[in-house]
Design brief:
Blueprint (H helix, E strand, L loop, with lengths): L5 H13 L6 H14 L18 H4 E4 L5 E6 L6 E6 H4 L4 E8 L12 E3 L5 E3 L8 E10 L7 E13 L2 E11 L7 H16 L5 E15 L3 E13 L12 E2 L3 E7 L12 H29 L8 E2 L5 E7 L4 E2 L12 E3 L4 E2 L8 E2 L13
Parallel strand pairs: 1-3, 2-8, 10-12, 11-13
Antiparallel strand pairs: 4-7, 5-6, 7-8, 8-17, 9-11, 9-14, 9-15, 10-11, 10-13, 16-17, 18-19
Length: 373
């Protein structure tokens, strides 16, 4: 039976020896602080770019169809692809005296302004696309195939959706052996840990926020009843900084959030916001993983006894979480060309909070509804 839980049993024996440790609580905090020095900025990292809409040569210019409405996806506040007022068959054909007219979601004729452009060849292009621009667009094309032939007319329909990248984050959990749950030194340890993590990701413009802290008694095989702190922390993008989290100390987990902070100060090496955020989040993730791994390495080199508070090897876990903003949702069935985009909710649906999907609502008559009304 002992062979089935060797790690836990070994930790239990370590804790038993640590009970009589003469080390002071201050020494424990200094021991933890030492790990910050060992984590260097040269750690390699995986660039995790947004996994949603992938532009191709064909998606830069989008053609219509006489058989069905063509769906077009435009990132919020960005420039749209060129929406052509022709079909694939007519795209490279010679058209005599062509004329184009675009109608917007409310049936109004579209004219050029600061955010909308109609090119000389009839292409519709949006600058700084807004939520309110989402909807059904139609284009009327009149042309002659040859000079001698009569005028032909064509009506094409497009459904243009605003979309956003999901606000995604890494969520970690880790456990520490601890003194009794009612000990004030647990609080001191948490504060020190937060300071260290904050310094660890400081150069990445990230912020550490304590969310909650709990302590539990854990029965260990051949080691009796032990006290453990359960830490959970996340590396998140900047739009999660203002989320309402809570911080309470009870006698199972400390929730910490590592959030990308764009203060607008200093140089920004990547002009693409999503690109830079992904790099910073990925690097913060790797720095945190290395921080905990080096605690294990330091404990392995340490002579007995162990400190009273120490990281329990193998307890660090990570999950990748996606969320959409209110009024947006993912739907790979409805939007197969943009399966991991947070696409604006269509009429008849809504998303009231940062869930993943738009919910059905027959009373919703607008794009981007945040309530069923």
């Amino acid at each position: 039976m002992e062979a089935s839980v060797p790690g836990r049993a070994r930790r239990g024996r370590r804790r038993t020896r640590a009970a009589g440790s003469p080390l002071s609580r201050a020494a424990v905090l200094l021991f933890l602080s030492a790990f910050l020095v060992r984590v260097t900025a040269s750690v390699g990292y995986l660039v995790r770019l947004p996994r949603s809409f992938r532009l191709t040569k064909d998606s830069v210019k989008i053609v219509g169809s006489t058989n069905f409405p063509v769906k077009v996806y435009v990132m919020l506040h960005q420039k749209s692809p060129h929406v052509l007022c022709v079909t694939q068959r007519l795209r490279n054909a010679e058209l005599i005296d062509p004329s184009f007219q675009w109608h917007g979601p409310k049936g109004k004729v579209i004219s050029e302004n600061s955010t909308t452009q109609i090119t000389s060849t009839g292409s519709l292009v949006f600058q700084n696309f807004q939520e309110r621009m989402s909807g059904i667009y139609t284009c009327s094309l009149e042309y002659k195939p040859t000079v001698e032939e009569t005028v032909k007319r064509l009506h094409l329909k497009y459904i243009i959706y605003a979309y956003r990248e999901p606000h995604y984050y890494y969520q970690f959990t880790a456990r520490y052996h601890a003194p009794p749950c009612n000990s004030i030194y647990n609080i001191s340890f948490e504060k020190k840990l937060l300071q260290i993590l904050s310094k660890l990701v400081l150069d990445l413009s990230c912020e550490i926020s304590l969310l909650k802290s709990e302590c539990h008694h854990v029965k260990m095989q051949k080691a009796g009843l032990q006290n453990e702190l359960f830490f959970t922390f996340s590396v998140a993008q900047e739009h999660l900084l203002k989320r309402p989290f809570f911080s309470t100390l009870n006698c199972l987990s400390t929730l910490v959030e590592v959030s990308s902070l764009d203060t607008g100060k200093g140089p920004k090496p990547c002009t693409d916001h999503n690109c830079e955020s992904s790099r910073r989040l990925a690097k913060a993730k790797n720095l945190i993983e290395r921080f905990f791994n080096q605690q294990v390495e330091a404990l392995g080199r340490r002579a007995e006894p162990l400190p009273e508070i120490y990281y329990i090897e193998g307890t660090l876990q990570m999950v990748w979480i996606n969320r959409c903003f209110p009024g947006y949702g993912m739907n790979d069935m409805q939007h197969p060309k943009c399966p991991e985009c947070c696409v604006i909710c269509s009429p008849g649906s809504f998303n009231p909070r940062d869930g993943i999907h738009c919910l059905q609502c027959n009373n919703s008559l607008v794009y981007g509804a945040k309530a069923c009304s």
